UniProtKB/TrEMBL annotation:
Residues 65-158, 161-250, 251-339, 340-430 form the Fibronectin type-III domain. The keyword Repeat applies. It is found in: Basolateral cell membrane; Cell projection, Cilium membrane; Secreted. Functions in biogenesis and organization of the apical membrane of epithelial cells of the thick ascending limb of Henle's loop (TALH), where it promotes formation of complex filamentous gel-like structure that may play a role in the water barrier permeability. May serve as a receptor for binding and endocytosis of cytokines (IL-1, IL-2) and TNF. Facilitates neutrophil migration across renal epithelia. Residues 617-654 form the EGF-like domain. SUPFAM superfamilies: Concanavalin A-like lectins/glucanases, EGF/Laminin, Fibronectin type III. This is Uromodulin.
Length: 1252
């Protein structure tokens, strides 16, 4: 029987046999067991044993060092080992170390006053290890005589701390350090650091070298340097430390004088790199270093006081930091200003020179600078100049001018404060006692007095109009001058001025009127029974009366009476030849009537005895434009007459009795309405398109002709379009074909047929039977229409534009680059032969867009017609229809009416009882042409109501030769228009405007109340802040807006003439009245823009301003911004962080626009991951001015669009996958509110077209 047991349990078993063995399982590790063996036939035996303990599972260590108590330089290194006790029973641990260094100690406890070692504790302290070495620690659990398997733990002891650090050298930016003590154990290098962490450690030849250089330090700064030993990446337990201070550096650059006066100076210098706690300033006069002064400053500026005036000082500055001084830096000397001058006075002055003087308190080593203004090349010496005296004189100045003299002292090249004095020079007196004598027809004498013997005199003679007489002004040294070569009977202004020392005095002026010798033919009214001899005697007595009344022997008057009288409408006239030698203001033919009334004591106001002077010279007739525009002057015995031009009918006989020799035939010349060629000359050459702004009449059939000249090698674009209520007339190029479309009936011709710089006559004739296209008289295409060609009236004809052609369509068609002339539409389909003749230059009449009679009735009066560059005779063929016969309304049926001619200047009511007044009554012609056109002898004449005289403005006359002056090169070159969003500025050369105004009258903008200002050699008109101010008109197309105004002559009171009975005659009009000057000015702006805001709003947002160049006319500026809130009040100025879930608040606004009628409309907006708006990856946000449905998770909201100068929208932040940035782009259109309708937009002028 075998019994095994320990303190916890026991087991019992039986085993028979002579020999026996047994295996025990599930015993406790490290436990002590007792084995009892009882043989059947023997004595009990007892055996004791321990099971093997379990190994230590994990070991940790904590290393340490301490200073040896017997030495400050010796360090003791060790380690503390600790581990987790294993399971089972044990009675201790066996610990060993390799290499076999040091001493291993177990924990000690006190028992009964004795210290005992406790080997069962799971920790040990090992001391006496070598620094930097690697150790293997072996730990075994023990139970009785049994040991567990060993657990080996490996670790390295940190190296020994380096020895004390010595500073071998230090300068302003580096230091060399050394530590030479021998080290125990092992190390492989050293690790250095500075506090603060600046500088760079220079790598040594060997890592174990005990010296290092630290570079890159800052001057004047204190550093702590720490040095660790290293061993396989381990640092020593603590570093060796040393503080160092780098040397400060001297200040940089030059000394700068901030301010100075004679005894104080404020200086500034550039601080050096690194730290500078204060500066030491050493200064002393350059001529004596024995008196050195020191000052300290904590800043890089200092103010030094109590210096000597006008003294030069040396300066040396040192930087002080952490108690160390830098090297001293010497600067260029700086001087204090000298004291200023005193007692500056004017000693003497005359017309051209000034002498001045002054004093100085310390004149030694001081110079003086004298300057004066204004300077000139003629004055001497030229300022500024230097002198050592306290006196100065300047000559060559201008009399009467005010000069300012500045004088200041200079010492060591430093100026004192200046003293100034103002001097006004006297001026010579102008000539006195000016007298005019010996006045003749073409000359006079002028004399004067002057006290200056060395002066010259300028004599000038000017006409009343302000121009200089040829040869004047002249210069003379005499005190008198004989003026010759003048015109007779003219008033002149004569001036004389003194010129002395280059100065011209004010002018003495007088007015002179020369004598005139005149011989004029004048009619004198006479009773039928008075003989010419009686009138001759009367005229002699009348002449004697005048000469006696004037009492001037230089005046002569002769009145000769022709022996034969002359008659006008059976009224008798005496023909007088009047010779006068006198000044016109004293005696002239125009005064004879009043003088005759005085002689006869006639108190009536409207008595008229003498006619106006009769023009008998044919050149006078032509010069004075006596005849109408459609007739020419023809010479006659006494008077001239007029003869109608070819193609015009003389209607004078219809209203004037033609058997009188003084009747002016040809004064009423009208175009033959049945056989007259009148064509427009519209030239469409500028950018944009032209709208014939009058309604087209309804046309059941029509013909359309025009001339076209291409300005580029290829025909493209829209030529003409008409669209109205379903009616359609189109002619355009597409895909190299010229398409013609009339109400859906379409045909085409190859566009390549048309060549550059070739004139083509193009006609289109259409009725419901046939449509034909004729080019240069040749039928190119014809078509049997399926749809009616009838065009409904009321629409507008447009040249080079189609209102329903959108942006894509325009890109396909292109832009028309051609000249369109003689555009004409007829209300019938002309035959092929007629159109061939038209192409060959023959006339076709009755064009609804050309002949004025039909054009007036259908399209309105001339002022409302489309502007034409060449009027030709278009508007000269129509007399104002102010009366109409009650029996016949036809325009050709002109008949009897009352009117006056230059030959009969006395319109008097028919019931005037006096016999010496004249009435011109028209007599009905014996033949009256009725509507049928045949002559009838006994047809009853229609009756007429006489019309009162009425005032008619020149601008409304259709039968006046109005020559519009437009586009002359010299005018175009002399006028410049500057266009901005809030103003239009017109700058014109003053000389050119003055010349035109002298000839044709004042020029003004459409609203004359907008005046002009003179700016140098130019006149300047400014239309602001509203471009529609000053009478400007606005023309809107789908792509551009044009503001149009003009500088033109306007009707004034003196340019208004009287239409007598509705008829105006050519000789009533002056050159100003028959010439209309119009200089059109305009500013054009495109309406479509693309605005891009570059903002990679993940992680930041920025903004971008885009400027748009608009053709060569003007520009708008647009800005896209991001705002911090949806109130759109504060745009971001920096780079904000916008996180997911926040809203983008985007505003697009126009800059530099103050006109409240301007609006901005977002047409479309989109986003791209790169800056190009045309990037293939895009995210549409707004289209057709509306948000894209569902975009940005339905968060996009358009806050404002098209109702102010800023459009606004917001929506959630987004990004493109795989991209960092997002760019926003918007196409915008600039719109203009209709003022007549408040803020309502002209939407009919806007479509979806845009520019990229």
């Amino acid at each position: 029987m075998i019994l095994i047991r320990n303190k916890l349990n026991f087991k019992h078993t039986n085993r028979k046999g002579r020999r026996g063995s047994h295996t025990f399982r599930d015993l406790s590790p490290g436990a002590l067991y007792r084995l009892d063996i009882v043989p059947e036939d023997g004595e009990r035996q007892v055996i004791k044993f321990n099971t093997k303990p379990i190994p230590v599972p994990k070991v940790s260590t904590s290393k340490f060092y301490r200073q040896a108590p017997d030495s400050e330089s010796t360090q003791v290194f060790g380690a503390v080992l600790y581990w987790t006790p294993p399971a089972g029973a044990l009675d201790g641990y066996a610990v060993s170390v390799q290499p076999n260094h040091g001493e291993i100690k177990a924990p000690v406890y006190q028992k009964n006053g004795e210290s005992r070692t406790d080997n069962t504790q799971p920790r040990r302290v090992v001391t006496g290890l070598e620094p930097g070495l690697e150790y293997n620690f072996t730990i075994e659990s023990t139970a009785g005589n049994e040991k567990s398997a060993p657990t080996i733990f490996n670790t390295r002891i940190p190296p020994e701390t380096p020895g004390p650090i010595e500073v071998k050298s230090v300068d302003s930016r580096s230091a060399v350090l050394d530590w030479q003590r021998e080290h125990r154990g092992f190390l492989d290098g050293f690790y250095l650091e500075t506090v603060p962490p600046e500088g760079e450690m220079i790598r040594p030849k060997r890592n174990t070298d005990k010296q290092r250089e630290v570079a890159g330090l800052k001057p004047g700064k204190k550093y702590t340097v720490k040095v660790h030993s290293t061993a396989y990446g381990l640092l020593s337990f603590r570093p060796s430390e040393r503080s160092i201070i780098t040397l400060p550096e001297a200040p940089l650059g030059d000394l700068v004088v901030i301010s100075r006066d004679p005894v104080n100076v404020t200086l500034s210098w550039t601080p050096p790199d690194g730290e500078a706690q204060m500066y030491q300033i050493l200064y002393y006069p350059t001529d004596s270093d024995a008196r050195k002064l020191k000052e300290l400053s904590i800043n890089s500026t200092i103010t030094l006081t109590n210096l000597d005036p006008g003294t030069e000082y040396n300066f040396e500055i040192e930087t002080i930091s952490n108690g160390l001084h830098s090297d001293s830096k010497s600067f260029d000397p700086i001087a204090t200003p000298p004291l200023g001058i005193e007692d500056l006075t004017v000693i003497d002055k005359d017309f051209t020179s000034v002498s001045i003087g002054w004093n100085h308190p310390k004149p030694d080593n001081v110079k003086y600078v004298v300057d004066y203004s204004p300077n000139s090349r003629n004055s001497w010496p030229v300022g500024p100049f230097i002198t050592t005296d306290t006196l100065a004189a300047v000559d060559g100045l201008e009399p009467g001018r005010t000069y300012v003299f500045n004088v200041y002292a200079v010492a060591n090249n430093v100026e004192s404060e200046p003293k100034k004095i103002k001097v006004t020079l006297p001026v010579p007196d102008k000539p006195s006692k000016v007298e005019i004598s010996e006045v003749a027809d073409t000359s006079f004498e002028i004399t004067w007095e002057s006290p200056y013997a060395d002066a010259t005199f300028t004599v000038d003679v000017l006409s009343v109009a302000g121009g200089h007489v040829d040869g004047f002004p002249i210069s003379t040294s005499e005190k008198g001058y004989s003026v010759e070569g003048l015109d007779q009977g003219e008033v002149y202004k004569v001036t004389v001025s003194t010129v002395l020392d280059g100065f011209t005095t004010d002018k003495s002026a007088m007015q002179v009127e020369t004598f005139k010798n005149s011989e004029d033919t004048i009619l004198f009214s006479s009773n039928s029974d008075v003989e010419m001899e009686v009138i001759d005697a009367t005229m002699n007595q009348f002449a004697s009366y005048i000469l006696n009344a004037i009492d001037d022997e230089s005046i002569s008057l002769g009145i000769n009476v022709s022996p034969e009288p002359h008659f006008i409408n059976n009224d008798k006239f005496a023909v007088l030849s009047v010779s006068i030698h006198a000044k016109p203001s004293v005696l002239s033919p125009e005064m004879l009537n009043q003088l005759f009334k005085d002689w006869n004591d006639d108190q009536s106001e409207d008595s008229k005895y003498f006619s106006d002077v009769i023009d008998t010279n044919l050149n006078e007739c032509k010069m004075r434009n006596a005849c109408s525009a459609n007739s020419k002057c023809v010479d006659k015995e006494i008077l001239y007459t007029c003869q109608c031009n070819e193609g015009y009918l003389d209607q004078t006989d219809e209203v004037v009795n033609s058997d009188k020799i003084y009747t002016l035939e040809g004064q009423v010349c009208l175009a033959d309405l049945e056989d007259n060629c009148v064509n427009t000359d519209w030239k469409f050459q500028r950018q944009g398109y032209v709208v014939v702004r009058r309604n087209m009449p309804e046309l059941a059939e029509f013909s359309m002709c025009f001339k076209m000249t291409l300005n580029s090698p290829k025909l493209q674009g829209t030529i003409v379009s008409y669209r109205h209520e379903g009616s359609k007339l189109l002619m355009y190029q597409q895909k190299n074909r010229l398409f013609v479309n009339v109400n859906g009936n379409e045909m085409y011709e190859l566009a390549s047929y048309f060549q550059e710089d070739v004139v083509y006559s193009i006609c289109l004739a259409a009725n419901d039977d046939l449509i034909k296209l004729i080019v240069n008289g040749e039928t190119m295409q014809s078509l049997k229409p399926e749809n009616s060609v009838k065009l409904l009236g009321g629409g507008k004809v447009q040249i080079s534009h189609d209102s329903e052609c959108n942006r894509k369509c325009e890109r396909i068609r292109g832009d028309l680059d051609a000249r369109i002339e003689d555009f004409t539409i007829w209300s019938e389909a002309k035959s092929t032969e007629e159109l061939k003749n038209f192409a060959a230059g023959e006339c076709l009449t009755n064009g609804i867009m050309t002949l004025e009679k039909e054009a007036t009735s259908l399209l309105g009066p001339m002022p409302d017609r489309p502007k034409q560059e060449s009027v030709d005779d278009l508007f000269h063929n129509f007399v104002i229809a102010t009366i109409s016969p009650s029996g016949s309304p036809g325009f050709a049926d002109l008949a009897t009416r009352r009117w006056t001619t230059p030959a009969s200047p006395y319109p008097t009511p028919a019931n005037d009882p006096t016999n010496n007044r004249f009435i011109i009554e028209t007599v009905a012609p014996p033949v009256y042409r009725a509507d049928g056109g045949e002559d009838h002898e006994e047809i009853a004449r229609p009756t007429y109501a006489p019309l009162p005289d009425q005032e008619v403005s020149i601008n409304n006359l259709f039968n006046t030769n109005v020559n519009e002056i437009i586009g002359k090169p010299e005018v175009i070159d002399s006028i410049k228009t500057h266009c901005n969003p809030d103003n239009m500025t017109i700058v014109a050369e003053k000389a050119m405007i003055d010349d035109y105004e002298k000839k044709y009258g004042p020029l003004a903008l459409s609203d004359p109340s907008c005046g002009r200002r003179t700016q140098g050699k130019n006149y300047v008109w400014e239309i602001s802040p509203d471009l529609l101010g000053c009478g400007s008109t606005l023309e809107l197309t789908d792509t551009h807006v044009t503001f149009v105004n003009s500088l033109s002559t306007a009707s004034s009171a003196e340019e208004t003439i009287t239409a007598k009975g509705g008829i105006i005659f050519g000789n009533q009009l002056s050159a100003r009245q028959t010439t209309k000057v119009s200089m059109e000015v305009s500013c054009q702006f495109p309406l479509d823009y693309t605005v891009t805001a570059e903002y990679p709003f993940l992680p930041q947002i920025s903004m971008n301003i885009i400027k748009f160049n608009v053709t060569d006319y003007g520009e708008f500026s647009a800005l896209m911004q991001l705002f911090d809130t949806d109130a759109f009040e504060r745009p971001f100025e920096g780079s904000p962080e916008i996180e997911e879930g926040e809203l983008l608040n985007v505003g697009v606004s126009l800059l530099d626009v103050t006109d409240p009628n301007v609006r901005v409309t977002l047409q479309e907006c989109w986003a791209t991951p790169e800056s190009s708006p045309a990037h293939e990856l895009r995210h549409d946000l707004i289209a057709d001015a509306c948000g894209v449905p569902g975009v940005l998770d339905n968060t996009l909201d358009i806050v404002s669009n098209g109702d102010s100068r800023m459009a606004k929208w917001h929506g959630s932040v987004f990004k493109f996958v795989g991209y960092e940035n997002v760019w926003l782009h918007c196409n915008i259109k600039v719109c203009f509110a209709d003022k007549a309708k408040g803020s309502k937009m002209n939407r009919n002028e806007i479509d979806s077209s845009y520019w990229d």
